[in-house]
Every structure is written in structure tokens, then in C-alpha cells.
Write a structure and sequence with these properties.
3 domains; 235 residues; 16 strands; glycoprotein; mainly beta; chitin-binding; repeat
Length: 235
């Protein structure tokens, strides 16, 4: 789901927010355009690039919040999100163009609605307008990566409170040391979901279609073999 929104948002940016800065007169001998059509990076810039069309070179700038992707092949849209196109060591980006709701015109950001025990909400910004979003069940928004992530990997999230579940102490060996094993536990009220615990970290998972979680075996089995009581899964 999250990848779908990423693709959709980049497409919107491609259609509406690409900025042309200047135009170089057509010249087949233009040193910039080594190919008839293509993209070329601009040194010391994260979001500027040169687009060559029929040997005409045009300096372009990605929409605020996006970076130029040096691996993009013409005519594919060459701008992407910083989480997909890092800019370390490449230079700087244009000054931010914030709005009342968004720090950049495009991107994924922490939502003011989110709390440390309700970590799944985030904000998608499109042309400076904010859309409130929710991560898939059991995932929390990670502001550092701009993605939905396991709650225990998000420092600002209280994973146990968010999931409503804490992993029991794992079994121990003969010396009393915790065993390094994965143990699955029932999700109360919905037999298609379950909690998987490893090293004290709880993660909400779901069975494949046609299967349901069997607490006796601790695994997903044919749904017809499980007496299901279905209530809404956590959001």
C-alpha cells in the first residue's frame, strides 16, 4: 500500500510541479547533450538536472521535496523521494517551500495527530497540501526514513502500548539463558492475525489467504480448522 502511494505521488509531481529554469539554444554539437535525449546531473545539486530533447539542453529542478535520480533513464520521470534517492555528498537542494501544513511541497512526514502510543499516522504532502494517512495494521511511521516500519524500530513509538501487546519472557535453557527462538501468540479477537515474538520484540503479522492462526500449534493452518471470532484488527 505504501509503495502504491509513493508511485502515485511521484506521478502527480511529474505532471504538475516540474520547473524549467532556463533554455539553451538547440545545437547538435552541444557539449552537454551527448545523446539526442537524456538526463544529466548538475554538480553540487540534489534536485537540479539537465534534460536533453532533440539535442536541446534545458536546466530543470525537481519539485520541492524530491531529488534528482542519476539512474533515471529518459523519458522516465527523473525525480524521486529522498528515502529512495539519497543525496549524501551530492550537494544541496533548493530552499524548502513550506506551507501551513507541510514542511515541503511533496513528501511523507510525521503527523501532528500521531502520539508515542498511536504511531501509525503520518502526513502525505502533495503540492503543499496535507493528506492524513495511516500505516498498515501493526506498522508505525518512521520520520527518519519516511516509511512505515516495525514499531520497535521507531524510537518515538512506544511499541507495546501501540500494539497493545508485550512479549512474554522467552523460555530458557538449562543455564537459565533465554532461548533465541521465535514464538507466535494469538491476536485477541481476530484469528487471521497473530503476534510474533523474537528477542522480546513483538510484531503483528497475518496469515495468508485461506489460512487462520491456530494457537495450539502456533502457526497458520487451513481456516476451516480454526474457530474464528472476528473483530476489527488494530489500526
Amino acid at each position: 500500500m505504501f509503495s502504491y502511494f509513493c508511485v502515485a505521488l511521484v506521478f502527480v509531481a511529474a505532471c504538475s510541479a516540474q520547473v524549467q529554469v532556463s533554455t539553451v539554444q538547440p545545437d547538435p554539437r552541444n557539449a552537454i547533450c551527448k545523446r539526442r535525449n537524456g538526463y544529466y546531473k548538475v554538480d553540487s545539486s540534489c534536485d537540479s538536472y539537465v534534460e536533453c530533447t532533440e539535442f536541446v539542453a534545458r536546466e530543470m529542478v525537481c519539485p520541492d521535496g524530491l531529488h534528482y535520480n542519476p539512474d533515471a533513464q529518459w523519458p522516465a520521470y527523473p525525480c524521486g523521494y529522498p528515502m529512495d534517492v539519497p543525496c549524501l555528498g551530492r550537494g544541496s537542494a533548493q530552499p524548502a517551500q513550506p506551507t501551513a501544513d507541510c514542511p515541503h511541497q511533496y513528501g511523507y512526514f510525521a503527523s501532528p495527530v500521531a502520539t508515542d502510543d498511536n504511531c501509525g499516522q503520518y502526513r502525505m504532502c502533495v503540492a503543499g497540501k496535507a493528506i492524513e494517512m495511516v500505516c498498515p495494521a501493526g506498522l508505525a511511521f518512521n520520520p527518519d526514513s519516511g516509511r512505515c516500519d516495525w514499531p520497535d524500530l521507531v524510537p518515538s513509538c512506544k511499541a507495546d502500548q501501540f500494539l497493545g501487546f508485550s512479549c512474554p519472557a522467552p523460555p530458557t535453557d538449562a543455564d537459565g539463558s533465554p532461548l533465541d527462538i521465535v514464538i507466535n501468540y494469538k491476536y485477541q479477537g481476530n484469528c487471521y492475525y497473530f503476534f510474533s515474538c523474537e528477542s522480546g520484540r513483538a510484531r503483528l503479522l497475518s496469515c495468508d489467504a485461506g489460512l487462520a492462526f491456530d494457537p495450539a500449534s502456533g502457526r497458520c493452518v487451513d481456516a476451516d480448522l480454526v474457530n474464528c471470532e472476528v473483530t476489527p484488527v488494530l489500526q
